[in-house]
Amino acid sequence: MYVHWIRKDTAEDADLYEELRDAWDGIDYAGLPSFDDVLPDILEWVRGIRVADTVFNDYTYRASRLLYFDNALDESNIETAVRWLSDYGYVPRAFCGVGYAIELTDGYGGLSDQAVVQYAIDMIIKDGRYYPVLDESDYERREDAWLRDYFDGEVSDALHCR
Question: Which of 19-28, 67-76, 137-146 has the lowest mean pLDDT?
Fold first, then answer.
């Protein structure tokens, strides 16, 4: 996928750079590297996205392909990611199961805020240095509901088997 290089010291890229850095800095998660350190990695990641991994057009990436939630952690992380990404534009979920898609560029090669936020989400969830929960309170609430539903089902199953 085409995405152009961003240089913070040029007039045409200065505003975009500031906008993307603000999106990165808006992620309230301890331990993330600085935006300047990861910007080349983000650009390389976007360049590596294949057209087969896009939906709707050449620059809308299907970030999550889950067809259903296996557990409370998946549900919490997906819903939190969609909430975070929605601050930077519409997050389509059609054709993605319970997953979602994001716009990686503006369609002309300019990196999007959503791509920057998704890269941070991927770092948090996939990198072994981080605890893979995006929002602890959201996860706890969903885990309680999953456990309650599970044990309610177990009790009702046991009553029907007698």
Answer: 67-76
Average pLDDT for 98-114:
90
Partners of 98 in the β-ladder: none
Long-range contacts of 12-16 (CB under 8 A, 24+ apart): 16/110, 16/111
Residue 71 CA to residue 48 CA, distance in Å, equals 30
Rounded distance, CA 20 to CA 35, Å?
A: 8
Tell me if the pTM is above 0.70.
yes
DSSP conformation class of 59: T
- Nearest 5 degrees, angle CA 56-CA 59-CA 63? 80
Query: What radius of gyration, in Å, describes the C-alpha atoms of the chain?
Result: 19
CA separation for the pair 94, 123 (Å, rounded)? 25
Q: Tell me which H or E stretch contains 76.
A: helix 72-86
